[in-house]
# Entry
Amino acid sequence: MSKSDLARVLIWLAAALVSGVFVWLLADILVHGLSRLSWSFLVEAPRNAGRSGGIGSIIISTGLILLVTMVMAGPLSLATAVLLSEFSQHDSVFRCLVRPSLDVLAGVPSIVFGLFGNAFFCIYLGLGFSILSGGLTLACMVLPVLIRTAEEGLMAVPNDYRMAAAALGMSRSAALVHLLLPAATPAMVAGSMLGIGRAIGETAALIFTSGYVDRMPESLFDSGRSLSVHIYDLSMNVAGGDANAYSSALVLIILLLVINSITLRLAKQWLHKSVAV
Amino acid sequence: MSLPRTDKQLVALLRICALIAASILLLILFFLIDESRPVLQHVALTRFVTDASWHPAQGLYKLTPMLSATLYATIGALLLATPLGIASALFCSYYAPSLFAGCYRRLIAVLAGIPSVVYGFWGLTTLAPIIGHLHPPGVSLVTGVVVLTLMILPTVALTVDAALAAVPVAYLRSGAALGLSHWGLISGVALPAAHSGIAAGIMLAAGRAIGETMAVLMVAGNVAEQPHSIFDPVRTLTANIALEMAYATGNHRAALFVSGLALMTVVVMLVSTAELFKKNTHKHV
# Structure
């Protein structure tokens, strides 16, 4: 057998192995998770430390954490991206300062965000173990992704738009609000989806910021358990929690797939548009 | 060119936001160092290596078992994920029929997005019992390595795939014109041309493996002792932080922040080097 044939066989084998293992993983969670998945599982409160009952309060907590994350990170990332892509010729010093610090931030491991969130939000700012602390910690974490995608979206808007606006005597602010931001919206929504996807699966940064409490949260200052922390707790600390952990994992994966396909569709739409222009 | 007044106000507002965004990194560094200070003041750095064991309640701070667990798990996962990831990328770019390649890319992209807690959970319920059959207890260094491999494989595959796609078609055409075989073209032209991208992918994957917490926490067994075989349970630096933060106080808590600081330094160095390599790739092309 020649070298070329050997390489072909090995590469096909590797691809088969990789897809085999991953199909096994997904099928395993699908098969085990489906047995308990039902409408009542989604809306009922967990009982008996999560062994029975549903994940109603967990889903609410997860949603609130994500809401805090996006409300904080969304506007901040949009403003930073606008500065970096639209006004940076006036601000080269700023660019040199902000860009690298965001690149480094993107590489910080999630457990370190957890340590920081605990020290800063929970203790220094006195927010304690709360949905607010968790959401703010995640906001710091997804900020680089959001800024990067918003910046790319703005940069992809054709320069003719800016020229035309300037020729009409529009101020830069007006051009931004009426032309550039609308044109870049699909890209920015796709970026937010990417951020939400990252935040929703995060566990390590939440264990000691938003905490473990699985009751229905009454306010943002209550501790709330996210879906990912719920899976962790059921499988590690609760004997006999595996069945519900499987169903929660399935819910998490389905949520991620939905988010993923929305992102893909938006990205495609946006590509179409910018090609058409 | 000077800006009109409304624009100046807008820029000022934007600058404040950008400053907040940029200062998060400084805040993280400040709080990590501030929280680490008590232990750095009272305990010599060498004691993290020379103490008898990790019993922070008794004032013993030996971190080397955790350091070596992190190191072994990362190296093991890289040794497995690098060839498989490169093979996956080659499969998509040069071997698979286009329909297959599309499906395979989609699968890898989905897997890149699956949360680590799900990998950990699957490893614990499915993989650990199988490995436990071979050699108890099942939750061990080798289980951690396998789960980490699955987690970082998409990172390697996607980065290498992008690097291969950036190889200029002219290189490949000239190679083919010289009569190179399919494999000769790949090993002699495509892979060397994409080497910066491949190095970047491996470094990003290493950074991800070192910083990964949940998956190894769930499957590696969490015993804070030096492993003697791949079937021994181990506790990585990240798992150590996650397990003990809940009740740690005083010097113990500070010691955990020291390990967080060390983790952050290593991972940030790896990721920034990877970014440099990636930029190089773009320059070449």
